Amino acid sequence: MAEAEAFLAAHPEIDAFDIVLHDANGIGRGKIIRRHELLPFYKNGRHLPISILGLDICGEDVHETGLIWDQGDGDLRAWPIPGSLVTLHDTTPPRGEVFMSMYNLDGTKTGSDPRHALQAQVNAMEEKGLYPAGAFELEFFLVDNQRGPDGKVMAARDVLDGRPSFKTEVYSVDHLHGMLPLFSDIYAAAAKAGIKAETIISEYAPGQYELTLHYRMDVMQAADDLIRLKRIVRAQARAHGVTACFMAKPSENYAGSGMHFHVSLMNAAGKNIFVEQIEGKWSDTILHALGGLRATMGESMLVFAPHANSWRRFATESYAPVSPTWGVNNRSVALRIPAGDITSRRIEHRPAGIDANPYLVAATVLAGISYGMEHRIDPGPETTGNGYAKAPDAPPIPIDWRSAIVAAQESEFLKAALGDEMHRTFTAIKSAEYARVARTVTEIDYDLYLHTI
Known about the structure:
The chain is of the alpha+beta class. It is built from 12 helices and 14 strands.
């Protein structure tokens, strides 16, 4: 209550608040409440139907989650997350935003809330005296609001002067200048939200960009940063007349968008335990962490690539890993140890697309690290050179969305990583979405078969 009261006192201009809960797909769902409703929300929570956590990508009920009619679609109680109350940039009338999590009416955590799945893994590590830190990278496309003549998305024209670009302007600073009015608003909105957005670069496709985020000592905060920054980018792009696209692979001719997760482990003294003690010799801790991530990657791929489009991103020599390899200063592997100061030693987990849910990605990665450390798993030899050449000892990973769904459904590891209820909810939603896609007749069906079969 003190947080909400202080916020209202400091911001008399705020007229309303977005209250946002994130579902299995990472989609923000909730309500917009008026100013006078904020204090009652902090005092009593807010009733929301349990079915809000059992929706597919289209917002349709997935009955197989067990969250709809099996429970009478009853109300649970959502509570605001402390520290998540912020002002929104350039809204009319001025609004604020607060994240929330779902709880059962008896006060226990609702198992189908992705945020609780991550918190459970953080708590499990803290019981061992370990504290995960990390940051996500945000890759995205800025595309025109209208499709091209071929029905495909086109790179957005510069918001500065309308100049078009159809080239891969990777690392071009001059190219960034055309989008500076939009990027300036993104940075301003991030600052208001307490997010330390850092470097912006032009990425490896027309209209593709990357924003890096400041490393957090709390991975929950890192996941909050990523999911909130996506909302900021989408809103500011719309305000500037373009569309922010977070599909993993919006164009078949260019690289897709990843959500690389940088993670390290601290002990109670704040020391990074991934750091090697002997120069030139990796610590057993980081090797076992790599071993666990490598061993569990196959059954975890549905978390990292949760949609039909996700699987179009995985193509050789496209900066998306195709095998559970590890290496040093090598962007062709799935698990990369970046070069640099050894005191900041970390693993860059590269399989996830930007369309994945960061809470579930972080939960699964932490579980994989714990699994590797507990069982002292050897990651095998380092991959040098081209990581797209399949390593002979690489554990198998699914080759498509359907295989990933089956692997996830059968995985005891993923069930432990997400918790029974989140695992059931997530895999049921993915199965329903697969069925929707599988029965849809697409334009390519007509193109290939209408006049030829």
